[in-house]
């Protein structure tokens, strides 16, 4: 039986209309005076800390803890500001799916597996009243490497539940090939959803356990039975 379900955020739960990218761009300008500093940078599937390292290298910014702290303080401000004015939308069926999972008789623990830093994830999800659905997770400030974040999320979920979880007890839900790879890194099952930038046919090439167009195409009961598939 599945005991832990780990969700990606952007493109899986939420479509924020590029709020993260915009907040990064504004933070670079606010703190370092760099205009359009994110141009040409690929954000999909990346970790926030990895993006900051890349941007600091691109713009010859000294990668000190102080500079990173100043950047993220500005990023949090701008992310909240942008979402207040242009909130975007939840991905199709995502809020309903979360609540149906939560209401199952033997409900799994819900967690996050995301490249967002923790406070950025919280800001995004609170705007949609979804933050309180999650009890644990791995975040972009845990590592630049998404596979390592997956290991952190698995460890924290195991600690929360009081025993070491096996891969068969975990499902990772995400919208990119990187999310599928994260599941494989911890021996978990994966549900790929085509609510981001990758269509189902592209996701299937990476051999997820399941792939669907959106979360309305699968039932919570089926997710919790995935370990027996």
| Mean pLDDT value | 96
CATH homology superfamily name of the largest domain: HAD superfamily/HAD-like
Report the top-level CATH class of the largest domain: Alpha Beta
Shape assignment: globular
Q: Unreliable runs, pLDDT <50, ≥5 residues? A: none
Radius of gyration: 17 Å
Strand content: 5-15%
Major sheet summary line: 6 strands, parallel
The count of domains is 2
Give an overview in words.
The protein is an alpha/beta fold and 229 residues long. It folds into two domains: 4-16 and 89-228, Rossmann fold, CATH 3.40.50; 19-85. The chain has helices at 19-32, 48-58, 65-85, 94-102, 118-127, 146-161, 177-185, 200-204, 220-224; strands spanning 4-7, 14-15, 89-90, 109-113, 136-138, 170-174, 189-193, 210-212. β6 (170-174), α7 (177-185) and β7 (189-193) form a beta-alpha-beta unit.
Q: What descriptors fit this protein?
A:
229 residues; alpha/beta; Rossmann fold; 6-stranded parallel β-sheet; two-stranded antiparallel ribbon; 8 strands; 13% strand
Outline of this structure?
The protein has 229 residues and is α/β, with parallel strands linked by helices. It is built from nine helices and eight strands.
Task: List strands and helices in order, with pairings.
Blueprint: E1 4-7, E2 14-15, H1 19-32, H2 48-58, H3 65-85, E3 89-90, H4 94-102, E4 109-113, H5 118-127, E5 136-138, H6 146-161, E6 170-174, H7 177-185, E7 189-193, H8 200-204, E8 210-212, H9 220-224
Helix pairs in contact: 1-3, 3-5, 6-7
């Amino acid at each position: 039986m599945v005991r832990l379900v780990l969700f990606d955020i952007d493109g899986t739960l939420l479509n924020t209309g590029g709020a993260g990218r915009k907040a990064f761009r504004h933070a670079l300008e606010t703190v370092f005076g760099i205009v359009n500093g994110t141009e040409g940078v690929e954000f999909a599937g990346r970790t926030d800390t990895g993006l900051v390292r890349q941007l600091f290298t691109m713009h010859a910014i000294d990668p000190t803890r102080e500079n990173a702290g100043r950047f993220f303080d500005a990023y949090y401000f701008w992310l909240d500001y942008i979402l207040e004015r242009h909130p975007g939308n939840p991905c199709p069926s995502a809020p309903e799916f979360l609540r149906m999972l939560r209401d199952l008789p033997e409900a799994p623990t819900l967690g996050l597996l995301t490249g967002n830093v923790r406070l950025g994830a919280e800001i995004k999800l609170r705007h949609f009243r979804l933050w309180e659905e999650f009890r644990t997770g791995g975040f972009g400030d845990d590592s630049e490497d998404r596979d390592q974040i997956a290991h952190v999320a698995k460890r924290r979920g195991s600690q929360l539940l009081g025993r070491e979880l096996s891969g068969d007890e975990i499902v990772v839900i995400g919208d990119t090939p990187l999310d599928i790879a994260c599941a494989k890194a911890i021996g978990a099952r994966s549900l790929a959803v085509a609510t981001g930038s990758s269509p189902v046919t592209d996701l299937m090439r990476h051999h997820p356990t399941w792939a669907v167009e959106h979360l309305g195409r699968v039932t919570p009961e089926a997710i919790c039975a995935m370990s027996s598939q």
